[in-house]
Write a structure and sequence with these properties.
Shape: elongated
Largest sheet: none
Number of strands: 0
């Protein structure tokens, strides 16, 4: 009797049979996590070509991210054939690059205190999420823990809000650069105080002199007979005129 060998067949996934990929929401998920899930999604559904990945990604990513990509890729078009899925991923990688926010993320991490009613587990989860973006293992100072500690403390503890804002704009400065920024900002503030106070004092002095000037002006033009107001005329005895004006 002849035996029949069954050959397994595989059916490629079609768009209608693929589970929907949810849209990306930066408020609830990091781009890095969403990007990793996209990779698993395509792998699980045997989606390999760049054009298929691009089509499914743009169809699912959501209006906010779609419009963002339109802006990032301009003047090119998302629908252009030479626009690849890998190009879109690189654009979003650059836009959501956590390393460029190391200073801000570190400041947020050390400023994250336990909130009223927040359990320890919830607080820990929040800290761990913020910790991911601090770059403790990828920063330029990853092998210089003392420099990193000083730099972070400068940002957290400095009194001047303007200097802190200047530091937070930096990507990942070394300790020397951070200290130069602080010292330069302090010198500028000192120059403003040095050149600002004399000007204010001079303005005050001028105003003060100006206010007193009319009184001195009146005194200088006071008629001379006022000084003799209570000296009687030697001829008639009247106190209403001077002797030289007397008609007698």
């Amino acid at each position: 009797m002849a035996t029949t060998t069954l050959t397994p067949t595989f059916q490629l996934a079609t768009v209608s049979s693929i589970p929907t990929l949810h849209a990306f929401d930066a408020r609830t998920c990091t781009w890095q996590s969403y990007r990793d899930r996209i990779s698993f999604y395509f792998q699980a559904n045997r989606i390999h070509t760049d054009q298929d990945k691009k089509a499914l990604f743009l169809w699912s990513v959501g209006d906010t991210t779609y419009h963002l990509l339109e802006s990032l890729i301009s003047p090119r078009s998302l629908t252009a054939e030479d626009t690849r899925f890998t190009d879109l991923i690189k654009l979003l990688d650059t836009h959501y690059d956590a390393t460029k926010n190391i200073m801000t993320s570190t400041y947020d991490f050390y400023s994250c205190y336990q909130k009223s009613g927040q359990t320890f587990a919830e607080w820990k989860a929040e800290l761990c999420e913020k910790l991911r973006h601090c770059g403790f293992t990828t920063s330029a100072l990853k092998n210089k823990p003392q420099d990193r500690a000083l730099r972070d403390m400068y940002v957290i503890g400095i009194k001047s809000q303007k200097i802190r804002q200047a530091l937070l704009k930096e990507q990942d400065p070394d300790l020397e650069t951070t200290e130069k920024i602080i010292q330069l900002a302090e010198r500028l503030e000192e120059d403003v105080r040095h050149f600002g106070n004399p000007i204010n004092h001079a303005d005050y002095t001028v105003a003060k002199l100006h206010n007193h000037q009319p009184k001195r002006h009146k005194q200088q033009h006071t008629p001379s007979f006022v000084k003799n107001e209570y000296q009687p005329c030697e001829t008639c005895g009247s106190i209403k005129h001077l002797r030289s004006k007397c008609k007698y």
